[in-house]
Amino acid sequence: MEYRTTLEGISPDDLKGFFVGWKKPLTPEQHYAILNNSSFFVLAYDKDKSKVVGFINALSDRVNFAFIPMIEVLPEYQHRGIGRNLFNMMLKLLEDIPCIDLTCDVEMQGFYEKFGMLKSHGMVFRKYFKQD
């Protein structure tokens, strides 16, 4: 497995299969745009199959705050430590930023607590709940 922080050599075609279970999954083109416009991202790339199998991204002011909106590993690559590696690499990229936030489902809180993250209360607005 190779981990990358650049989109060099990556096209939307390399980003297929993500957003499993989403009511309205993002297209590979939208996924590419999200990565391209993120402050930071890390890709897990399977060199043998020439495809991206996992990713994490962060949005940041690069001074005090960063938000990690997404981390995902393709289903067939899960439970191999790829998500843990992606998260550790992102924390390294954000090491000089004191406030790092993310939102997650309750069942994922234990995963993030292993990295020293603390449970918090917050609010979100999700427009996709209004989609048909």
Automatic annotation (TrEMBL):
A GO molecular-function descriptor: acyltransferase activity, transferring groups other than amino-acyl groups
Stretches that traverse the bilayer: none
Leader sequence segment: none
Domain N-acetyltransferase: 5-132
Protein's name in the database: GNAT family N-acetyltransferase
Protein's organism: Clostridium thermosuccinogenes
Swiss-Prot/TrEMBL keywords: Transferase
UniProt superkingdom: Bacteria
Entries under InterPro entries matching the protein: Acetyltransferase_Butenolide, Acyl_CoA_acyltransferase, GNAT_dom
